[in-house]
Amino acid sequence: MLIRNAAPANLRGARPGDAAAIARMANALNRHEAWSPRRFSAAIVRRDAFGRRRAFSVPVALAARR
User: Fold this and answer.
1) pTM higher than 0.70 for the full model?
2) Which residues is 59 bridged to in the sheet?
3) In whole angstroms, what is the distance from residue 43 CA to residue 37 CA?
4) What are the residue boundaries of the structural domains of the chain, listed by start?
5) What does the angle CA 32 – CA 35 – CA 36 come to, to the nearest 5 degrees?
6) Are strands 9-13 and 59-63 parallel, antiparallel or unpaired?
7) pLDDT averaged per 10 residues, the chain (length 66)
8) Bridge partners (DSSP) listed for residue 13
9) What is the full DSSP assignment across 1-66?
């Protein structure tokens, strides 16, 4: 699908250093959906996205430099 007027971006897999930002975004979504706002912490994201028994993976979009 082509999205017109969208900024170019590069995708990469999340890294453990992204865990705090991922947790903040997940908690913001939880607040928006009226769910518990503190369900995720950086430690939980690191455990569940990067640990031995991974529960999920996360793509990260970075704005492409022009």
Assistant:
1) yes
2) 13
3) 16
4) 9-61
5) 115
6) antiparallel
7) 73 95 92 81 95 93 78
8) 59
9) ---TTPPPEEEEE--GGGHHHHHHHHHHHHHHTTS-TTS--HHHHHHHHHSSS-----EEEEEPP-
